[in-house]
Amino acid sequence: MSVFQSVNPATGKTLHTAPAWTHTELTTVLDHQAAQWPALAKATVPRRLVWLESLKQQLSSAKTVLARTITREMGKPIRQSEAEVDKTLALIDFLLGHADSALHPRTLASDVQQAYAPLGGILGIMPWNYPIWQVCRFALPALVAGNTVAVKPAPNVLLSTRMLEQLVADAGFPDQSLRVLQADVEQLDHAYDHPHIRQVHFTGSSHAGRDIAAACGQRLKPTTLELGGNDAWLLTDSGDLPRFVETALASRMNNSGQSCLCAKRWLIPHGRLDAVLNELDTHLKTYTPAPPEQTDTTLGPLARSDIQARLLTQWQRLKAGAKVRSEDPSLEGLYTGPAWAVTDEPLKSPVWPDEIFGPVLQLATYRDLDEAVTWANHSRYGLGGSVWDADPAHARDIALKLNTRNIGINRPMRSRIDVAFGGMGDSGWGAELGVDGLRGLARGQMQFLD
Fold first, then answer.
1. Domains of the chain
2. Among 42, 261, 355, 373, which one is least packed by beta carbons within 10 Å?
3. What is Dmax (Cα atoms) for the chain?
């Protein structure tokens, strides 16, 4: 049986250990959710928003403690953990302002309207790198739409997820509205089989996403999958080089490089490489690994030893084909310093197409924009990216040639609370957030009127 264990990556201290549930325990919780669901489903949307407003107050009061728990469980710098809670609060504000109208019947034709009703139970299988935000971006809209939520967290962030479970209960939502499933991966088939579970949301690796999609497909249960990214940031001859480097590096180092949506691959014109490396050297000095609970820390430890081991293996493969590179990443426990490598043959690189989780960045120099686009598209992923050019219209034309669902024009690409967000290719399918994401968590019904 698997174990849920929270270990502070900064100190190595075990914070909490708990066994995975048995099949009986898992099924009992889902049965209880199904039995209590009518109390949530029959409530009006305005009534659910009253509970959500209460949750906002609860979450605001718990922000400091919750952020500290996130940092202690997975090593995120404390200011970034606080920002994760703030983004969740912003999502609540969006839902408070838009959910009632979004879930109101819409007139599609003179005799046709689309109405919305609760689905049932929504299962979320969630990662460790954003243990509150990743859960809330589907769970809070699901609750507002009248669904119960069951969350299977990553084994190393159980404490953070349990805090959220308690906050939802304290906010006044009906009993069993949101439950944390202390379930082993092998037990998830029982959750997919449960008649109350009507939809599954997953954030994690492409390998696991394929398994989940196959299992849910056999049961004809829809999935939303966010499976990582390998974002290309393309600088042209006219793009703002200093701002590109500063912004791209901040994107890459966010959450100590452990983010799906960030500047993992930089495409640089041949003639601008020296200037980029000089600028990069200047800004890298601000990213030194330090204890994550210090308020001025910009780079904390990696979350787990297996993540560090994979990163170092990728670095060895990356530097073997580099024409220019930095020194090896500094290492002290799970604290891992930043590193970079430049190639002029990314199509031959064994690492270029793959996602790197950690503070290592890949650069490639290109001769013309056709080559840059080819190299940017040499990846299975399609989550984000960015194009930098003095002419925004030209940048948009380039962007349309890149195989990605989301892209920034002279700015970073970030998920927004008011816009649907999702990927393509090995980055998954479906979307969360915005009005479209909210409606996707409801049962839409076409009503043909007399």
1. 3-227+427-448 (3.40.605.10), 232-409 (3.40.309.10)
2. 42
3. 73
pLDDT band at 263 (very low <50, low <70, confident <90, very high): very high
pTM comes to 0.97
What average pLDDT does this structure show over 378-401?
98
Which pLDDT tens digit goes with each residue over 20-67?
999 999 999 999 999 999 999 999 999 999 999 999 999 999 999 999
Structure tokens at 152: 């299977």
Q: Nearest 5°: phi and psi at 166?
A: -70, -40
Q: 18-32 in b/e burial notation, b at 16+ Cβ within 10 A? A: eebbeeeebbebbee
Q: Is 165 considered catalytic here?
A: no
Q: Which of 73, 82, 165, 226 is catalytic?
A: 226
| Predicted pLDDT at 391 | 98
Distance in angstroms (rounded) separating the CA atoms of residues 368 and 365: 9
Dihedral class, residue 48 (left if φ above 0, else alpha if ψ from -120 to 50, else beta): alpha
Q: Rounded CA gap, 263 and 53, in Å? A: 35
Q: Give 344's pLDDT tier (boundaries 50, 70, 90).
A: confident
Other residues' Cβ atoms within 10 Å of the Cβ of residue 4: 23
Q: What is the DSSP letter of 173?
A: P
Condensed to tens digits (0 to 9), the pLDDT of residues 298-319 reads 999 999 999 999 999 999 999 9
